[in-house]
Design brief:
This protein has about 220 residues and is an alpha/beta fold. The protein has helices at about 15-30, 45-55, 65-90, 100-110, 115-125, 140-145, 160-175, 190-215, and strands at about 5-10, 35-40, 90-95, 130-135, 180-185. The chain contains 8 helices and 5 strands, in the order βαβααβααβααβα.
Length: about 220
């Protein structure tokens, strides 16, 4: 039994992650690939409790480093209790966000030194990274407009400048990491869905190619 793959979907609020998560799932179903869906922060009972703490309004202001540490505490639980065991069982894991979000939100958004995020990533992940990341990108003023009619959590209530920094963080990662595929989420759903399917198809093709070469 071959090990599963981790596919992550990234982007700030209002980019259409929920809708396009369904596109990924439909694609995997068509390919008859067994998979599970999860999210960050969250994914396990303990990690979901940390999520509640991270997203809930409190009278006490949460320090940016506290936020970062809680994110990685939840991620460690998520990784050790859900993601890695399911990958070992041959399941593909589709996660709504992973560590790239910590670079975008905490390093760029909160202006925390990237070296601190790097240190926690190495400690928690020990070299493990997603196999493919689909990054939905849209201008912050557009994405903010898309969520204006719903109740916002603590992080969603941040100002436009914060989300401009978050976007800059995501774009910086996309320039540096080949596994991240940038998708223009300002376009219609049909376009975004087709781009997701194209990148997924190319990813699976590359896996099959690698297997064929290894068998020679």
């Amino acid at each position: 039994m071959s090990r599963g793959r981790l596919i992550t979907l990234e982007g700030s609020e209002g980019v259409g992650k929920s809708t396009n998560l369904d596109v990924i799932c439909e694609f995997l179903e068509e390919k008859r690939i067994r998979f599970t869906v999860t999210r960050e922060p969250g994914g396990t009972e303990i990690a979901e409790r940390i999520r509640e703490l991270l997203l809930s309004e409190t009278t006490e202001i949460m320090d940016g480093l506290t936020e970062l540490l809680l994110m990685f505490a939840a991620r460690n639980q998520h990784l050790t209790r859900k993601i890695l065991p399911e990958l070992d069982q041959g399941l593909w894991v589709v996660s709504d966000r992973f560590t790239d979000a910590s670079y975008a939100y905490q390093a760029f958004g909160r202006s925390i030194a990237i070296e601190k995020v790097d240190t926690l990533r190495r400690l928690v992940q020990e070299g493990f990274n997603p196999d493919l990341t689909l990054l939905l990108d849209v201008e912050p003023d557009v994405s903010r407009g898309r969520i204006s009619d719903r109740e916002l959590d603590r992080i969603e209530k941040e100002n436009l400048e914060f989300y401009q920094r978050v976007r800059a963080g995501y774009l910086d990662l996309a320039e540096k990491l080949e596994r991240i595929k940038l998708i223009d989420a300002s376009k219609n759903l049909e376009y975004v869905g087709s781009e997701i399917r194209r990148h997924m198809s190319e990813f699976i093709f590359s896996l099959n190619n690698d297997s064929a070469i290894a068998d020679r």
